[in-house]
């Protein structure tokens, strides 16, 4: 006996039937429109890359999650892989920037909304195939670029209708400045930041312990840092602390410039300096940000400046910044999409006997040509009740009944599937009449 | 030194930059609109399936072309695969039909426009990642379904603007009837058809030889079959020949019913009975068709009825028919798409010094809110000429100049990038004015 799982999609992947598919596509279309309005342009790269393009770019943990593709033909037996599914959209961007550099505008502002694949342990809300939604600016070190990424993401979230969200903004320079103010030796800095990044998950005491025992900071320094970053007046305390560090001052200036540039376009309650925002990835070099929303663990968007990364990934060394919408987390926040049942067609055309079939087909073609989604009954039953049930199951608003009587009279009967009301209309006017009625009732 | 190929996409795959990407997406959108108008609904399945879902479904040759995904973690060293990239959209349809059967409308009319992957030897116009564009009706044995598939494909080709094309229609029953009329033993039938399918590539003599030496037919039978199928009056000859075969009569009736049902919607010169159309795949059971276009080798669309396939592929045994647009072959026929250069933005906003940056940002936001694609200069140069060059390179129709003088006066300068003409507009009216001008000039 076949198990009930036999026809499920592979673990961690999903099938999308019509209603869900269209809800997702609607969201993607909104995002695309916003990004295009900023002059970002689409880039589509293949689902797989040569294995060497991907390996060594995501750290040891990341490398383990890459789906590798077995060599083919006589080489299959080696058990070796030569290709791999893309793990993100950033490495393919770096490869494309290297491949098409001179053909691309400068700066190159690109967006990509596409699936990526990671062999993560599947779990609630965690998938092995999921869509990333990235926008990046390669080749500009201007603070206007950071601001543009932030504002474009803001507009996208706003256009999607995410009810409440807030940009948390910091700078890697501010973080390093804070460490400098506490005289943390340079070589302990990155490790200390990785631990400080856990302040949203661990208790302040636990973070202090880890800074001392795991990262080699003195207890006094560790306590001072954690106090600064968890105090209710953290913003003011950190601002004051950074006065003693040149790097810290530069970081604050980056944050302030971003806030200044976006002040006319992002409401003040939706954005703010957040000294304890760290971002795990160590490739960020300047402004960093995350977007949080009530009730959603983690962030719904994030990004920052990552000068140097494009070069490390194989491209020409270029300043760059970018951001990403966590679209799989955002979609569940957009509740309205699935409330109305999926209506496959607006108009259903019956087929009452073979003699009428060609005419039924013709009238359906005319209605479609008027832009109305129209289905013809494809079952084998000539029974009226059965065809009405089909029309109703399809979500049709109107039904065209065309039997021997109508054929004789050169008419069709239009039935309003909601009111049940029926009217006779000349055959040649059916399309126009239905187009008018559908426009009215939508 | 890096070789120039180092940054190319993997062999047989392609990157799509903005202009090409958007040309493709425009075509897909047209197709989607047509299919939806017929009440077909989208189904999206994952890029990969469990390996056992795919293997054994495409024949030995097909199985060799499946991209297999290596197991992960501790199992990677086994060199075994457990997943594979989808090879087509039909097997995933069969799996989904089995998984969601009762949730799906009946008949289930679905379309899918999505990439598939085949480890074919890459060549001119042959790719390892390419888009398939399928529509299928599962659960209806009505001839109306075959006709609907054909008409929907016709409308899609028409809507795409394919200048000239023709549907070649036949039925597997007509083919088997012809073999019956020539008293070819049943067990030689399928082999004989595979050879007859080569009439478009080999000479009639070569096909006769192969039928005799390779397929075990008598020379007289082989010659008779080839004469019937290559004669200028082939249609009439085959119609006459099929009189002696019940199967053949049934096949002719299928073809004639399709031609009758589509006569009001497909111009007569675009469709016709084609006795020598065979279609290689042996899963077809009824009407079969291909669409040919001048100058394109092979077909640009094809399909037919395949009543047992869904069951064989793992689904509930259901009647089914469908068709597919060879979209990678069709796209090059649609010439107009790439003639106009890709314009990234409509309006370019200059940034003349840091003091003006926030205001430049604000005016850009207002113009975007009016629906106009707008870019802000993100370079580091304050030089006017450099910013004008950027605006021009981006394809901007208008440029907003906002320097110290404009700031003082509360205005912006609008420059028409074609005529070079400049006008002063109050800052707050810039967005409205540009929205008006862009609408006029487009």
Automatic annotation (TrEMBL), chains A, B:
UniProt subcellular location: Cytoplasm
Main location, first listed in the record: cytoplasm
Binding, L-histidine: 88-90, 118, 132, 136, 279, 283-284
Main EC class the enzyme belongs to: ligase
The enzyme's E.C. designation: 6.1.1.21
Pfam families, per database record: HGTP_anticodon, tRNA-synt_His
Single GO term (MF): histidine-tRNA ligase activity
UniProt GO cellular component terms: cytoplasm
Reactions that this protein is recorded to catalyse: tRNA(His) + L-histidine + ATP = L-histidyl-tRNA(His) + AMP + diphosphate + H(+)
Domain of life: Bacteria
InterPro entries according to UniProt: aa-tRNA-synth_II, aa-tRNA-synth_II/BPL/LPL, Anticodon-bd, Anticodon-bd_dom_sf, His-tRNA-ligase, HisRS-like_core, HisRS/HisZ, HisRS_anticodon
SUPFAM superfamilies, A to Z: Class II aaRS ABD-related, Class II aaRS and biotin synthetases
Any one of the GO BP annotations: histidyl-tRNA aminoacylation
Segments forming domain Aminoacyl-transfer RNA synthetases class-II family profile: 1-334
Entry keyword set: Aminoacyl-tRNA synthetase, ATP-binding, Cytoplasm, Ligase, Nucleotide-binding, Protein biosynthesis
HAMAP family: His_tRNA_synth (MF_00127)
Family according to the record: Belongs to the class-II aminoacyl-tRNA synthetase family.
Complex formation: Homodimer.
The name this protein goes by in its record: Histidine--tRNA ligase
Organism of derivation: Streptomyces corynorhini
